[in-house]
Design goal:
By secondary structure, this protein is mainly alpha-helical. It has two domains: about 1-210, no CATH class; about 220-275, no CATH class. Helix content is about 35%, strand content about 5%. It has helices spanning about 1-20, 20-30, 40-50, 95-110, 115-120, 125-135, 145-155, 160-170, 200-210, 220-225, and strands at about 55, 65-70, 70-75, 260-265, 275. The strands form two sheets. The chain has a three-stranded mixed sheet. It has a two-stranded antiparallel sheet with strand order 4-5. The chain is globular and about 65 Å long. About 25% of the residues are buried.
Amino acid sequence: SHAVAFALLAYESTWLRYYYPTEYFCALFNAQPMGFYSEEVLTGDARRHGIEILMPEINTSRVGAWPEGDDMRLGLQQVKGLGGNWFQQRGSREASIAERIVRERNANGPYHSLRELVTRARLDRGSTEALIESGALREFGRERRELLWELGLLIPLSATTERERDKETGQATRKRHTVGHQPGLPLAVEEDMVSLQQLSDWEQLAWDFRRTGVTGGNHPMALVRPHLHEGMVTSLHVGGVHNPNRLPQGQKVEIAGMVVTRQRPSTASGVMFMLLEDEFGL
């Protein structure tokens, strides 16, 4: 019965992935965290099967990941720092921050500026920073660093909630009135804005990973590859019986990649199994 249960699950998953690949990957993202493979590994697998992963957008994304044509748009709930998991909290009476943003947008139209977003969706500084750093507010016409600067003009650091201050100082928290989402008076901030440098490829990669677990640009190994010596083997040269680039069996190789999973079974030799990923595959 154990084997039959696994076989049925494998068949159903394979059927969904073959006939409804975009919906299948959306479901996997909405069910995270779920174990073996991270969001970035799932992203690479989806892209290798012709599905483009579109990063969160404040006026386009739904709460969870959702099909957009043949591609997949990440939801606002995929932004780490908004708190909670929409898929796991659907029975909760209190709406998540992502749900609040989407409901307000559906009711009163798209957001046109950072101030409008903070005011209408009642966002605190931490949630707004998470959205900015994820790149979800790019359509407001400013770079991420510039949006963080503007946020500082709207909600100074001193305007954090008393609950947040208690948490930072290690004091006991009590239920208090939240004022962190209240921006300053609606005065023009243009004269206080500055032009800041765009993120480098490495910085964008780091910010994307920190806030969404995936990257909308190059795979990390694509940035590392120019710094590796020639002759380094890639995933294009391993695996696949009919792979024209496959190397002969028994040949010693040197390979570089990101460790995506590792297992250390209880054996006398203490062997460890690692699965590596580069910009071409696993």
